[in-house]
Fold this protein.
Amino acid sequence: MNERETVVLSRDCKALFVPLGIQVNAKQGTEVTILQQLGGSYTVLLEGQMARIDAKDADALGKTRVPLPSESFTGAPTPEAVEQLVWQHLRTCYDPEIPVDIVELGLIYGCEVRETGKQRYRVDVKMTLTAPGCGMGDVLAEDVKEKLLAIPGVSQADVELVLDPPWTVDMMSEAARLQTGMM
């Protein structure tokens, strides 16, 4: 979505002001402007401030929830399949201020998939933030965790925010640097 769209909320829903991560209740009948829709969540202008509305509340915006990659998965949750789905799900997580997924941004420092039982897995992710004081850090980490737990066979997920080494633009993929004009 590149064009801004103004809509009226059809019901109350939770929103988080960006970049502080402060939760507010966006009321039914409130006009918001959709700035971007990436990974299922929406970045909107709400009461003159940037806010994030989760995918589960897409209907409040008159939109249809975007399915996760694992929702069309029909095979057995083998270690290889789970790892592939983990990376696909990580690519659906976005900083609400930056139109590039967290993998391409270079925010994922490590990802380990471990078998904990027959077709049961634990996923451990180490990730960082573009800025240490980002109020959206816990929100992004929770988004990652929820999306990992939606993968068939994943029964445990841990997301650790690490700030060492500090993130730099050099950690972005070439495509991400090109997309954001940081070449």
